[in-house]
Each structure stands twice: as structure tokens, then as C-alpha cells.
Amino acid sequence: MKIKPLYFVLSLLVTASMMLAACAPQAAATEAPQAQTEEPAMTEAPTEMSTEAPTEAAPTERHGGWLDEIDVSVVAGDSAISQLQAGAIDFYSFNLASDMYPAIQEAGLESTQSLGGYYGISLNPAVFTDATVLNPFSNRKIREALNWLIDRNYVNQEVFAGGSLPKLLPVTTQLVEYTNLIDTARALESKYAFDLEQAKEVIDVEMEGMGAELGADGKWQFNGAPVSL
């Protein structure tokens, strides 16, 4: 008999739960996001290239240089750098010795290099008709020994401040003719490089063979008189 009241209570609970569910608030509907599209910005049309021919320069009847006036001054080489620095002259067109190159750099001046001349020693190979006078350079071996006697690198550093090139041959080392003979030239330059002892040995033998005597003062004598060059 108690079962019926129990079913009655359960049915009431089910009915109440259904009513509560029906009364619950519903979630608000959300709208789907819309993609925003931007219209492309307007661009200007490309500028058209001008097809007009360039204007020709007006003809001129002028001849010669384009300077109205050119002033030429006589300037000594030892004052060229100072006058350039002072603005007294615009450029110095004559060559300066290579030992002045450090001063040119220190002054901050621009310069160019050119192939200049060369310095050498000319020897007189003649045999004197006066038998009492001796010319050592009439001896070929003594002339050859001078190549070992002269230190060309020392002369370059001390006289030309390193701005020159030692020269042993008639051919200039900067010109193309030197490259045509480079093997022979390099061999001769090596053979006749500075060698003071070899030069002294050859000169001593040849001078004695020519009848000269070396005095106590280190000077050569011939027939009792100093040998002069």
C-alpha cells in the first residue's frame, strides 16, 4: 500500500524538475564575426617620361683654354711647397727631387710621379801619353770593380730619401724593354751587387800590376806622386 504514495511523490519531483528546466534563461545568441574588407587605396597613374629632345648648347666661337686669365710665375723649387700652402700659386709644374716627397706628404699636398732622369758616373778609359801619369780607369777590371765599390741602395736612401731606384744597366727598369731582358738583367744586378771587399781585392791587384804603390796613408802613389782622378 505504501508503493502508490511513493510513485506519487516521484512523479511530482519529475514534473517539478521539468518545469524548472523550462523556466531556465537561455544563452544569448552570438553573431558570427564578419571579416572587414578594405578597398585598395587609389594610386596615381605613373608619370609619363618626357620624349622631348634635350636642348643643345648654344654654339660658341671661343678658341683655346677656358680660362680668362693665366698667371705664370717663376718659383724656386725650395719654396714651391710653402707657396702652394699659402695659396700664392695653384700648382707647381716642374719636377721636385724625390727627397722632398716626405715634405709634400706632410703638407697634405697632392702630387704625381714621373719617370725622370738618372745620375751616373762617367769614366775616362784613355791611356795617357805621359808615362809619368797613371789613369786607373784605363784598366777594364778596375772599371768593373767600381760596380762592387758603389752602394747604390745607400745613395738612394741618403741622397734621394728612398725615392729613386738603383740602376746598373743602360735599360730603364720601369720600361717594357727591361721585361724583355729581365732574366739577363737580374743576373747582372745580382753579380754586381755592392761588395766592398771584392772591389778592394780587385783594385789592389790591378793597381800594383800597373806599377802603383799603396802608401801608409791609404792613398795610391805612382812614380812618387799621388794618383789623381
H and E order: HHHHHHHHEEE
Name of the CATH superfamily of the domain at 136-226: Dipeptide-binding Protein, Domain 3
Specify the number of helices: 8
Sequence stretches where pLDDT stays below 50 over 5 or more residues: none
**Biggest pleated sheet:** 3 strands, antiparallel
User: If strands are numbered along the chain, what order do they take across the biggest sheet?
Assistant: 1-2-3
Q: Proportion of β residues?
A: under 5%
Label the CATH architecture of the domain at 136-226. Roll
Please state the oligomeric state of the protein chains shown.
single chain
The geometry reads as elongated
Assign the CATH topology of the domain at 136-226. Answer: Dipeptide-binding Protein, domain 3
What this model shows, in words?
This protein is mostly helical. Among the domains are: 71-114, no CATH class; 136-226, Dipeptide-binding Protein, Domain 3 (Dipeptide-binding Protein, domain 3, Roll). It is 35% helix and 3% strand. A 3-stranded antiparallel sheet has the order 1-2-3, covered by helices on one side. α4 (140-149) runs antiparallel to α8. The longest helix is centred in the first third of the chain and has 21 residues, at 3-23. The mean pLDDT is 80.
Brief write-up:
This protein is mainly alpha-helical and about 230 residues long. The chain has eight helices and three strands, in the order H-H-H-H-H-H-H-H-E-E-E. The longest helix is centred in the N-terminal third of the chain and has 21 residues.
